[in-house]
Amino acid sequence: MPIRIAPPMTTSPSRPRILTGDTPTGTLHLGHWVGSVKRRVELQSSHECYFLIANIHAFTTRARQADDIRRDSIEIVRDYLAMGIDPAQSAIFLQSEVPAIAELTFLFAMLLPFNRVMRNPTLSEEIKVKGLGEQYSFGFPLYAVGQTADILAFRAAGVPVGEDQVPHLEMTREVARRFNQIFCGVSEHAEDADHEKLGGVFPVPKADVGAVGRLIGIDGVNKMSKSLGNAIFIADSAKEIHKKVGKIFTGRQSPSEPGNIENALFQYVDAFITDPVRVAELKDRYSRGDNIGDGHVKVEVAEAINTLLEPMRERRKQYEGNDGAIIEILRDGTSRANALAEETLAKAKTAAKLGYFPRRLALG
Question: Residue 282's domain spans which residues?
């Protein structure tokens, strides 16, 4: 079907700017939805939104899988569109096609001690979960610095993120403060909200964590993740949803046994069953062991998830087999992103005495 490509977005002081994105590792799952994407959909009509496909970051652990990264980059856009992100309101763009990000990454790397980067708890957790040991590339820790450039290149005031990404954002806040202090003369005692007013190039961005900061996977233990095989994907069929929800582990043995409503299953109850009266009733009966089994609760959870996902699955079908339309959406969004990122880079280079003459960037 033909896809309308939006004209460039207009900026307005009344529309705060946000930036967030995802590393393409395959199709998106419910953890992405509740942790960040739902919030993006809510904000896109009131904010100036830039959503990044972090395909360069994907190379930090998958450099030998370039074909897969390219495929996943396109698939993730299909998921964005299915979930309700509107390219007429939001710029969806490719990290690899915004050279200002790479330049800022190199500059910001000079502002962070190496041991500070390696103390980032999210980085440490990824090294452990992915089993990288000491075999990760030099680019792997560098991607933590690159994430600061992803955000600051767009001078975003807010960043919708999952709970696990908050440490990355804290490092971004440190870099913004340090750059503004070193190169723009902003006092180290200045309030974060005042940095731009005091002449800083960069705002000090805030995290905007979704209602469910960290969705547990169906194993009942770890964060939902494709690599751990515990994810429910946006594109899963109704049958697959019921099968996967049925695997959510609680450790409970009997419907008459008082249950722990802090378990993984009831995180799903809170996240996906929309009737608060029904949620309260389920919690009450489950906690008392009032003849309500895990299986019954799981059926209700699966039905609620399918109600959420059915319109997403239908929207996704519109873009299946139409890579050309996805590329055009990316081209348009990347053009918008480059206009802003180049402006930011020029400001940063001027402040750091690196700006010798203007340049112009255009997509071919």
Answer: 238-316
Least Cα distance to 83 among 319, 330, 312 occurs for 312
Q: 270 and 336 share a domain?
A: no
* Rounded CA separation 158/15 (Å): 12
Q: In 3D, which of 253, 299, 261 has the Cα closest to residue 281?
A: 261
Confidence band of 12 (pLDDT split at 50, 70, 90):
low
Q: Which two tokens stand for residue 46?
A: 């009131």
Q: Hey, which residues does 313 pair with through a beta bridge?
A: none
DSSP string for 243-307: HHHTT-------TTSPP-TTSHHHHHHHHH---HHHHHHHHHHHHHT-S--HHHHHHHHHHHHHH
> Which residues are CB-neighbours of 320 under 8 A, at least 6 positions away?
78
Q: What's the pLDDT tens digit per position in 200-241?
A: 999 999 988 777 778 999 999 888 988 889 999 999 999 999
Look at the chain and count its residues: 364
On whether residue 251 sits in a domain, the answer given is yes
CATH number of the CATH domain containing 209: 3.40.50.620
Any idea which residue has 């969705």 for tokens? 215
